[in-house]
Amino acid sequence: MSETVNKDITEKELKALPGMLMLILITAGELVSGLLAFGFLLGFIESESYVLMTVIFFAVFIILFFAYFGLKIVRPNEAMVFTLFGKYHGTIKKSGFYFINPFATAFNSSRKMITTAQGANVFVGPKAVSLKVSTLDNQKQKVNDILGNPIIIGAVVIWKVVDPTKAVFAVENYQNYLSIQCDSTIRNIARLYPYDDMDDKDGIDEKTLRGSSQEIAERMTKELQSRVDEAGLEILEVRITHLSYAEEIAAAMLQRQQAVAIIAARRKIVEGAVSMVEMAIEQLNEKEVVVLDDERKAQMVSNLMVVLCGNKEAQPIVNSGSIY
């Protein structure tokens, strides 16, 4: 199905002739015209107008020679977009050996122009548009998350060309276009989330760059796809490959993470110590091992909490007298 690229260009499949058949016919025509031309020129074939016949068959020989330029090979997972005298001629997406108008040229906007040592400008790169799955390794870039913290983020984009006509005519260079749109998308999405949830809020499921990387990568994929639709590209996947704090705040954020971990660990220790002290007092009362008043219970709780929550081992003290 053809798709409108712009007001002037609509994608169309180029009706090409079989290349092998045309190669045989052109070669046969070259041999015949060449032999006849030399036959009339050397007098092997007698004719009153041998000069005219020689010129005609030489002209046919030269025309057939230029016909070889119409033979094109399209490899698997490649497409060729052709222009004829500056106008869009058609697109071949199927692999094979074809013959087209010799004056038609393959056009690929991703080819690079370089200047040779002699000062001439030449284009380098393949004329065919690759339809293979490709990988764009986006460079690491520094952005600010939603809290204003500078972070370093990098991503890999898995993509392919699905509409070669759009790719070469809708944008100047579809590979550079994809790279720029990828940078912009990563920056826009990264600014909407915090790097990490430092507050450790219970009951609040807040997405973060570190904890929800898969969901954020899927959002990047959708936004990037909407940006490159006009270039005939399909985004298969976006993966976050690097995520870290910037160097200027990395040390401070590491200390903050350590502090959060220490607080969480202390909370667990205190909760366990309280339950152990409560269990000890209940069992002493139930078995009537010793009867303690409120003051002694408070002292016992204090001593047990110190022992259970302390970082160092407690030093036992033996009391040989009365506890009162």
Characteristic key phrases:
3 domains; alpha+beta; 4-stranded antiparallel sheet; 13 strands; 324 residues; rod-shaped; Tetrahydropterin Synthase, Chain A
- Total number of distinct structural domains: 3
Tell me what the CATH architecture of the largest domain is. 2-Layer Sandwich
Structural class: alpha+beta
Give the tally of β-strands.
Answer: 13
CATH class label of the largest domain:
Alpha Beta
Number of helices: 7
Mean pLDDT: 79
CATH superfamily of the largest domain: Band 7 domain
Q: Which fold name corresponds to the CATH topology of the largest domain? A: Tetrahydropterin Synthase, Chain A
Rg over alpha carbons: 39 Å
The coarse overall form would be rod-shaped
Residue fraction in strands = 15-25%
What does this structure look like?
With 324 residues, the protein is an alpha+beta fold. The chain has 3 domains: 91 residues, no CATH class; 112 residues, Tetrahydropterin Synthase, Chain A; 59 residues. It has 7 helices and 13 strands. The strands form 4 sheets. Strands 3, 4, 6 and 9 form a 4-stranded antiparallel sheet that branches. Strands 10, 11, 12 and 13 form a 4-stranded antiparallel sheet that branches. A hairpin with a 5-residue loop joins strand 7 and strand 8. Helix 1 packs antiparallel against helix 2, helix 4 crosses helix 5 and helix 6 runs antiparallel to helix 7. The longest helix is centred in the C-terminal third of the chain and has 41 residues. The termini are far apart. The N terminus is likely disordered.
